[in-house]
């Protein structure tokens, strides 16, 4: 820079300072630099208007101080305008930025706006890190909606965002976020009922529907909406109650084990030698499962009880349920031996659940095979429901007429070994390997021969024999009969298509000791397929009286527990030494 340029720059600076001191409100836009355009607050933004209002009030309250500050800023701005460095920076702006600045800026705007320097925003040097999929971000389906009946909001607040573990849909826990903000967002934004277009109203029919039709209640579109993976959770429990009148005080261990993360969509409970009061038994089941489930169907055959509970959200997709019975011991006045089956269709998949009680006795294997053959031939199902596969079903085998079959109960097959030998094997078992016991299992041997339960499978057993115990303890039969411990209580399954049934859990319930049998439970993941709307639908029918009584007892029990805890916390204990 030459001496003449330096002299000129100093003169310009002095002139700017004089003008600023003489006319603070003058137009100095010519001496101001043009920084990158700053983002403006939207017209509808309340935040921007509030900030500008506060800034204006502060300027009004301190005029003298702001006047001095503004004069200094204008002088500094004029100096920077004449500097080569700032001229270079202004020239480096893109045409787009200068164009936007020229369109949005005016001399009048500069009188109002502060002339503070603002640096241009920094751009990231590399790609931003990927966000973790910690909560649901797209396409929340109706099955994932939350209402007050499915979520304990008080517990949610206390646990700071952890979801209530009583939710029964595994997809909900797997896909939904675990923070309270996501829950609140879904609560306020999404509705259980989605809007229906007039076109859909014209085309949709709940009486007749196509398998692939977009308007079918049981079609593929509705199935994928509720079950994206096209599978449901099925919980099966079987228990020989030995006819005891006194029921366990708590059935949570039977239906809601502590090691199960989520509840299932269907609960099927089969009982042999059930308690005298079947209604009381069903009420206790409803009380345990709570308001999330309703009794789809219940039936009995003597002292054989079979109940089907379904998650109440899914009752609209169930057909009418049917049942049939078979007696294998005709001489007996009380029907203790035989079978009871319940059948229904869910979407396009037909289910058959059979609970049975075969002939007892260590050596009566042949009689038990006869019981099985009689049941598969005489069980008259389905009745009004359509046959799932009429071209492959056989009149002599009821299990060929359904897609998914579960057969469970007290089959009475024993271990063909002396009591002393079995006790020695049990005492020598390490871990969960029950292979040495199954070498003598009668049921496993006859199934390998193909003489019984054709096409059925059983999950690997990793629990001790469930029969026969002394009441109230874990000691096997200590009476004079010294019955051999055996796996009499079993759950078998059969599917029309390979690998449609996946075993999640198969174990016994050792905490319930009111009978000489231990209950056996199985958890399964079952594939389902779309169907047609021409089947006789359940139409939301369920046992309302049973439901209300079970919920009333549940509430009463909770109130009593809270009162007891309150009294215990308020009581004082005095000791005299």
From TrEMBL:
GO terms for biological process: phosphatidylinositol dephosphorylation. It catalyses: a 1,2-diacyl-sn-glycero-3-phospho-(1D-myo-inositol-4,5-bisphosphate) + H2O = a 1,2-diacyl-sn-glycero-3-phospho-(1D-myo-inositol 4-phosphate) + phosphate; a 1,2-diacyl-sn-glycero-3-phospho-(1D-myo-inositol-3,5-bisphosphate) + H2O = a 1,2-diacyl-sn-glycero-3-phospho-(1D-myo-inositol-3-phosphate) + phosphate; a 1,2-diacyl-sn-glycero-3-phospho-(1D-myo-inositol-3,4,5-trisphosphate) + H2O = a 1,2-diacyl-sn-glycero-3-phospho-(1D-myo-inositol-3,4-bisphosphate) + phosphate. Its EC number is 3.1.3.36, 3.1.3.86. SMART domains: IPPc (SM00128). CDD domains: INPP5c_INPP5E-like (cd09095). It is an enzyme of class 3 (hydrolase). PANTHER family: 72 KDA INOSITOL POLYPHOSPHATE 5-PHOSPHATASE, PHOSPHATIDYLINOSITOL POLYPHOSPHATE 5-PHOSPHATASE TYPE IV. Pfam families: Exo_endo_phos2 (PF22669). Residues 90-100 have a biased composition (Basic and acidic residues). Interacts (when prenylated) with PDE6D; this is important for normal location in cilia. Residues 230-532 form the Inositol polyphosphate-related phosphatase domain. One of its GO terms (cellular component) is nucleus. GO terms for molecular function: inositol-polyphosphate 5-phosphatase activity; phosphatidylinositol-3,4,5-trisphosphate 5-phosphatase activity; phosphatidylinositol-4,5-bisphosphate 5-phosphatase activity. It is found in: Cell projection, Cilium; Golgi apparatus, Golgi stack membrane. It is a peripheral membrane protein. Keywords: Cell projection, Hydrolase, Lipid metabolism. Its main location: other. This is Phosphatidylinositol polyphosphate 5-phosphatase type IV. Residues 20-53, 90-128 are annotated as: Disordered.
